[in-house]
Amino acid sequence: MSVKQHPFHKRLLKEYSGLLKSTSSELPGITLISNDDSLINFIFQIKINSNAKNKKIYPDDELYYLNIKITDNYPVDSPQVKFIIYEDEINKLSSSSSSSSSNTKGSKENPINLDDDDNDSNGSIKYKSVIPIHPHIYSNGHICLNLLGDDWTPACSIESILLSIQSMLTTNDKNERPPDDKSYIRHAPLNPKNSKICIS
Predict the structure, then answer these.
(1) What gap in Å lies between CA 3 and CA 66, rounded to an integer?
(2) Closest Cα partner for 148 from 185, 193, 118?
(3) Helix segments in 42-157, DSSP class H
(4) pTM of the model
(5) pLDDT per residue over 113-165, tens digit each?
(6) Cα separation of 181 and 155, whole Å?
(7) Does residue 118 lie in a domain region?
(8) Per-residue pLDDT averaged across 6-11, rounded?
(9) Which of 16, 28, 70, 140 is deepest in the core (most CB within 10 A)?
(10) Could you give phi then psi for residue 20, rounded to 5 degrees?
(11) Burial of 100 (0-12, 13-18, 19+ CB in 10 A)
(12) Is residue 2 part of a domain?
């Protein structure tokens, strides 16, 4: 059975091809984890280059997964974008890390810190998938971002979303959620585009 193509499938195919190239070179810290055949549903892993100010906010053992779903009206309309918990990929990473570290001994160049609570007994990192902390990111993964609302234009792309969100996290030094987080998530729809979420 043939896959139903998006009206702008050629554009999506061009963006997809560009992402395959750029995520390995031009977009450091961003990895395309999965996508469907119709190029409608994407999952990306975003790593943060932590600095002295936000190292405690975004520790190395936390991995962040962004789900981007293309709408029928894309690129006139912005995609559905939210952070998700993605345990399947975490299990793969943890398994791979444990396997490789079991055959590796510590050295001056690559020491194994057995006192680190984020490491297990053989020195591998215990990764966990979480929703990143940010004043504009709700605990259900919904994001307040101008680019996803009024600032969106057909010239914007999946790549511009990824860069904006990565930059938003990298420059953050506040370990807090939006002030209305608890009340918002109680009534928020699954699709953030259907909510009256603040655009900041």
Answers:
(1) 24
(2) 193
(3) 87-101
(4) 0.82
(5) 323 444 554 556 788 999 999 999 999 999 999 999 999 999 999 999 999 99
(6) 31
(7) no
(8) 95
(9) 70
(10) -60, -35
(11) exposed
(12) no
